[in-house]
């Protein structure tokens, strides 16, 4: 007797099978025949996938668009300035309310694990207090991992170093940084070294905003890879953005990529934000600013797409939909072959779960029964349609349902309804 059976779903690898769930865990992935369950969902060929995972977000800033004003230039630097203005006036209650609203959106979109940076440059640390509270409030359905992020510079902002350590003492999970925003290249490299040492001493993961600039001489990823090796942190360190790599000299990149691979750095490009914020000082040709995704994947480096922003000082759109993120990444990185498109789906599911170090994730017996059923037959169709999340299941419980979208047509001689499903053979 199962708590829940999902009948006849198409898994991302193409298998069509049943999934049995008991006690919040996946207990069977096989044909379950006439097995009984308290509840049965007929998936009948719909895609059943593990939940989406966003490895890069800012939940303290989300849904603040327009507070206290909008970003007129649209640049990263005006966004950082604007966020500084908002920090002066925001309250802890305000941050909690915005973050919980965002988590509702995420739950409805099948996004059940999020790594959020939280700014540690405010001496009151009210964003940290707020997101620790939210992490606890949503823990039954969203894995929320927090990164101590010195937005205004670990050394450049006078109290950031102290506050970042305080935030870790308060229970923030991951060590962050922003080396390209320190005053000098030397300070940037020193910040990478010290922050990695802090993580190693505490047994924590590292995730730095690294080289989020069009400056090809911004090479902090090299230091991050070196420190990762030196301190034995392989597999536990992430480099977010790495946009300078778009503009780097090809010969230098041919030396750099093996170093990133050896250090097992997880790489997190954020395509919605990178395509909007990078290349802003260019005339034409105007650089895309996305890091070298295909080249890193070809070397076996774990690359996952992050969302970064929804309705905040840096980005005026967004819906908590990781399919939007993957869709943009697919276009900007020109990942249009069937194999590449499937990889783009992995980059918002299994790859990002690996980045976050999620142990009980995935469609396998014994894993946590968190999954989603989409109105699509396979990952490529899910991307094309940004498919409706028909059911979202967290720890064995259905937490969200959305009806299929069918248009009602009034066209003579044509069917009365139209859906956008259209499966394409990959051969
Ligand atoms: Fe970010």
Number of DSSP strand runs: 17
> Which percent range describes the beta-strand content?
15-25%
CATH C-level of the largest domain: Alpha Beta
Strand pairing plus helix content: what structural class?
A: alpha/beta
Strand order of the largest sheet: 6-7-8-9-10-11-12
What is the correct CATH architecture of the largest domain? Alpha-Beta Barrel
Query: Bound compounds, please?
Result: fe (ii) ion
CATH superfamily of the largest domain: Metal-dependent hydrolases
N-to-C CA distance? 40 Å
Specify the overall morphology. Answer: globular
SSE string: EEEEEEHHEHEHEHEHEHEHHHHHEHEEEE
What fraction, in percent, of the residue positions are helical?
A: 25-40%
Sheet with the most strands, sense and barrel status: 7 strands, parallel
The gist of it:
The protein is an alpha/beta fold and 427 residues long. 33% of the residues lie in helices and 21% in strands. The model has no long low-confidence stretch (mean pLDDT 96).
């Amino acid at each position: 007797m199962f708590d829940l059976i999902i009948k006849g779903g198409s898994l991302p690898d193409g298998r069509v099978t049943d999934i049995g769930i008991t006690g919040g865990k996946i207990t069977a992935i096989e044909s379950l025949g006439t097995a009984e369950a308290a509840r049965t969902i007929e998936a009948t060929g719909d895609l059943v996938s593990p939940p989406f995972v966003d490895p890069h977000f800012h939940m303290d800033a989300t849904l603040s668009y327009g507070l206290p004003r909008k970003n007129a230039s649209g640049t990263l630097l005006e966004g950082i300035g604007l966020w500084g203005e908002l920090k002066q006036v925001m309250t802890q209650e305000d941050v909690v309310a915005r973050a919980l609203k965002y988590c509702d959106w995420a739950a409805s979109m099948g996004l059940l694990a999020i790594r959020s940076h939280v700014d540690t440059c405010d001496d009151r640390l009210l964003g940290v207090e707020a997101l620790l509270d939210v992490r606890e409030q949503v823990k039954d359905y969203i894995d929320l991992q927090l990164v101590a992020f010195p937005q205004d510079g670990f050394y450049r902002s006078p109290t950031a170093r102290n506050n970042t350590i305080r935030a870790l003492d308060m229970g923030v999970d991951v060590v962050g940084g922003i080396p390209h925003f320190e005053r000098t290249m030397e300070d940037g490299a020193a910040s990478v070294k010290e922050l990695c040492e802090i993580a190693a001493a505490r047994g924590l993961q590292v995730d730095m905003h690294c080289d989020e600039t069009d400056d090809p001489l911004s090479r902090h990823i090299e230091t991050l890879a070196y420190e990762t090796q030196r301190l034995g942190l392989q597999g536990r360190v992430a480099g977010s953005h790495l946009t300078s790599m778009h503009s780097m000299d090809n010969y230098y990149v041919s030396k750099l990529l093996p170093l990133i691979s050896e250090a097992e750095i997880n790489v997190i490009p954020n395509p919605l934000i990178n395509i909007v914020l990078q290349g802003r000082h260019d005339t034409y040709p105007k650089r895309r600013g996305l890091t070298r995704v295909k080249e890193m994947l070809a070397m076996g480096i774990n690359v996952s797409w992050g969302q970064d922003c929804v309705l905040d000082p840096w980005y005026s759109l967004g819906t908590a939909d990781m399919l939007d993120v993957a869709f943009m990444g697919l276009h900007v990185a020109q990942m249009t072959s069937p194999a590449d498109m499937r990889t783009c789906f992995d980059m918002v599911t299994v790859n990002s779960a690996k980045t976050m170090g999620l142990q009980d994730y995935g469609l396998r017996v014994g894993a946590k029964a968190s999954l989603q059923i989409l109105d699509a037959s396979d990952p490529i169709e899910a991307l094309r349609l940004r498919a409706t999340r028909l059911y979202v299941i967290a720890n064995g419980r259905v937490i969200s349902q959305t009806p299929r979208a069918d248009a009602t047509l009034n066209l003579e001689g044509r069917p009365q309804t139209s859906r956008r499903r259209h499966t394409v053979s990959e051969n």
